[in-house]
Recover the amino acids of this structure.
């Protein structure tokens, strides 16, 4: 009777110790556990991402502080003429005086800029800055003014001004302007609502009175300007004439060409760069003259050069962290293959330690790269991490051969990480192929593996 109550059908006390029949040594269950651990390790990777984001913000603050002293990213626009007018209009049966300005752009214009660059340091962060000497030439057709003026407008010729714009006049060092060979006296202009209304939101004006009277409306006018300005990171020049040619030359070896239009000709070398843009009237997309037109419409087409800081590691580290789950999985998969081909087993805690070592790799990469640059920083962090997890593999699996195999595999793996970071456009393709090859190799190496571990469980049950 007691046997009936203590031993269920199946006999021999199986009900008391049914776990004996579970595949406790099942490689299938172990692989599922390893995959789960790889996913869980993505959680602390998020904290590393937050740290990188915070350090990147510190770098942006350093750029802002330097920009406050140097003028920041500068956008400049060459000479244009504005002439105030007033006219009488009838509103609600009442005659009111309306004021505005007629804006005249140059027929042809050139801007030639020479950039001298240097790198300033704020804390651990480097900020590329420049001093730009810009020379402008412009040819005007004053006869267009009368055609562009509104009906019944009374032009105030004695209030005509020759204007230029710059984003931050604190960076202005030298401003010289001439018209028909006569030197003008430029001065900063705080607000000129009759020129641009409320359109210019971040440009500041520099203006000089034009020495002419009403009968000076025929022929052409030649204007020149020299503008020396300091700034940081980026400089651009608006297409200020109906037909504009812009040339820039500098000693920065890593420029990025921006501003809505690529250069017609460019050359980049270790000694610097040269670039030339030609923007015709139709491509500019703005009238050559008009009443109360928005001057800042021209700023949308402003050939620009950005001084890329190749020593800035944050973008590369963020890109590397995007692939962290994939590489965590590949390292875990490598350890799992060592486990299946050796006579020793790895505990889940040992997988966690290996995953933490990989996460510390990103912390090392961040901290060292801030000091010595990304490429040497990557080399230091990768060598340290590869040695640590390879020697650990030799210890876990009790074999020098395992350590050497791990060293080879993980060296290739971290070389793949660096390659992906440098490929940029083809990083996804390369990463996808590498992942496919890793999975295909695992499938091949485990093709004869007893995933259920049933055989061993049955042997234990019969023991």
């Amino acid at each position: 009777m007691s046997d009936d109550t203590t031993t269920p059908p199946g006999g021999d006390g199986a009900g008391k110790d049914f776990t004996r029949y579970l595949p406790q040594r099942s490689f299938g269950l172990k692989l599922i556990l390893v995959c789960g651990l790889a996913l869980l390790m993505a959680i602390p990777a998020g904290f590393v991402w937050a740290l990188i984001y915070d350090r990147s913000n510190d770098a942006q603050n350093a750029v802002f502080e330097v920009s406050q002293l140097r003028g920041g990213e500068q956008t400049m626009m060459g000479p244009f003429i504005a002439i105030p007018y007033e006219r009488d209009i009838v509103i609600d049966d009442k005659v009111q005086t309306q004021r505005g300005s007629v804006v005249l752009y140059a027929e042809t214009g050139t801007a030639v800029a020479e950039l001298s660059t240097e790198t300033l340091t704020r804390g651990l962060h480097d900020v590329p800055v420049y001093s730009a000497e810009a020379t402008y030439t412009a040819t005007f057709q004053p006869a267009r003014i009368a055609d562009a003026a509104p009906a019944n407008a009374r032009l105030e010729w004695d209030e005509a001004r020759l204007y230029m714009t710059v984003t931050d006049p604190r960076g202005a060092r030298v401003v010289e302007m001439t018209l028909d060979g006569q030197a003008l006296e430029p001065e900063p202009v705080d607000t000129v609502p009759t020129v641009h209304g409320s359109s210019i939101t971040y440009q500041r004006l520099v203006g000089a009175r034009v020495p002419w009277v009403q009968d000076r409306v025929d022929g052409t006018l030649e204007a020149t300007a020299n503008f020396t300005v300091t700034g940081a990171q980026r400089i651009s020049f608006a297409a200020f004439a109906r037909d504009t040619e812009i040339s820039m030359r500098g000693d920065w070896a890593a420029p990025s060409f921006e501003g809505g239009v690529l250069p017609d000709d460019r050359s980049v070398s270790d000694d610097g760069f040269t670039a030339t843009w030609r923007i015709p009237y139709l491509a500019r997309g703005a009238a050559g003259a008009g009443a109360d037109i928005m001057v800042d419409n021209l700023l949308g087409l402003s050939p620009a050069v950005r001084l890329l800081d190749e020593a800035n590691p944050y973008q590369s580290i963020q890109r590397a962290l995007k692939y962290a789950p994939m590489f965590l999985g590949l390292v875990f998969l490598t350890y799992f293959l060592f486990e299946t081909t050796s006579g020793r087993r790895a505990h889940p805690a040992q997988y966690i330690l290996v995953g933490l070592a990989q996460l510390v790799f990103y912390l090392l990469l961040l901290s060292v790269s801030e000091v010595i640059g990304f490429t040497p920083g990557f080399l230091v962090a990768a060598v340290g991490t590869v040695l640590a997890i390879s020697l650990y593999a030799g210890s876990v699996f009790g074999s020098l051969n395992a350590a050497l195999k791990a060293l080879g595999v993980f060296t290739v793996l971290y070389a793949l990480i660096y390659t992906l970071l440098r490929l940029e456009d083809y990083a996804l393709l390369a990463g996808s192929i590498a992942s496919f090859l890793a999975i295909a190799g695992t499938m091949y190496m485990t093709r004869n593996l007893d995933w259920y571990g049933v055989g061993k469980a049955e042997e234990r049950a019969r023991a």
Remarks:
- Residues 73-307 form one domain.
- Residues 42-70 form the longest helix (29 residues).
- The radius of gyration is 35 Å.
- DSSP finds 13 helices and 18 strands in the chain.
